[in-house]
């Protein structure tokens, strides 16, 4: 089993159009729908995906839930809702009623009133939080120890073939000290690599992967492709997945299974359909 926990879907042919990507963005496919993704991912052994919503339109959360109702290959949706929106609580309750809705992607800061309120609601609904690594993540995990937090895209650590810088690594260490904080090994080639086309050699990525392994261990690292944004790496889906497989397979079959789906199940707690 392989669950890809970071994909994005969009369809510019919808009557309302799409807010992302921009019409003149020629680095991404014109359309990204489940059928397009599955044509690339299923041959690589992928059995399901968690879609991460990147549209600021609230009703696009429902659009993805409707896609998932038609295709159980979408095992979960990490929705897009803004914690400072006055309708946040009502929108969260509405979408959380659908078991496919597993969390939100947002910047939540515990010492801001709306951030603390949002975190409390996520815990109450048994939802997780996808987020980038920022100074507020350790404090959020400290204040809300029951909240499952998934740090996206290797914590924003640049990958240049060398060991991560000490400041970023220290912030990641503070976050990783909390047992319900996970790290998504995603965006390695398209977002984190400082070289384009992204290198295919594992040794280029190894210093960062080793650092993440030392911090999060075998139980809190999660697979994500970042498709179709991954196309910006000038590498294809198979190459991106095989890079991750090459690294984690050296640590044994049990670790490979954890990385490719078991850890994701613990973090997102999707409902099998």
Structural summary, described in words:
It is a single chain. The chain is of the alpha/beta class and 273 residues long. It has a single domain, classed as Metal-dependent hydrolases (TIM Barrel). 40% of the residues lie in helices and 13% in strands. It has ten helices and eight strands. It has helices spanning 34-41, 59-70, 88-96, 113-124, 136-143, 166-176, 188-192, 202-216, 237-249, 253-268, and strands spanning 3-7, 48-52, 74-79, 101-105, 128-131, 149-151, 181-185, 221-223. The chain has an eight-stranded parallel β-sheet. Helix 5 (136-143) runs parallel beside helix 6 (166-176). The mean pLDDT is 95.
Concise description?
By secondary structure, the chain is of the alpha/beta class. The protein has helices at 34-41, 59-70, 88-96, 113-124, 136-143, 166-176, 188-192, 202-216, 237-249, 253-268; strands at 3-7, 48-52, 74-79, 101-105, 128-131, 149-151, 181-185, 221-223.
Helices and strands, with pairings:
Elements: E1 3-7, H1 34-41, E2 48-52, H2 59-70, E3 74-79, H3 88-96, E4 101-105, H4 113-124, E5 128-131, H5 136-143, E6 149-151, H6 166-176, E7 181-185, H7 188-192, H8 202-216, E8 221-223, H9 237-249, H10 253-268
Parallel strand pairs: 1-2, 2-3, 3-4, 4-5, 5-6, 6-7, 7-8
Helix pairs in contact: 5-6
Provide key terms for this protein.
TIM Barrel, 8-stranded parallel β-sheet, 8 strands, 273 residues, alpha/beta
Poorly predicted ranges: none
Second CATH tier, the architecture: Alpha-Beta Barrel
Gross geometry = globular
CATH level 4 superfamily: Metal-dependent hydrolases
β-strand amount? 5-15%
Order of helices and strands: EHEHEHEHEHEHEHHEHH
Overall number of strands: 8
| Protein structure class | alpha/beta
Strand order of the largest sheet: 1-2-3-4-5-6-7-8
What percent of residues adopt helix (DSSP H or I)? 25-40%
Count of the domains: 1
Query: Rg to the nearest angstrom?
Result: 18 Å
- Enter the CATH topology name: TIM Barrel
Average pLDDT level: 95
Query: Sheet bearing the most strands, described?
Result: 8 strands, parallel
Distance between the termini: 15 Å
Number of helices: 10
Query: What is the CATH class?
Result: Alpha Beta
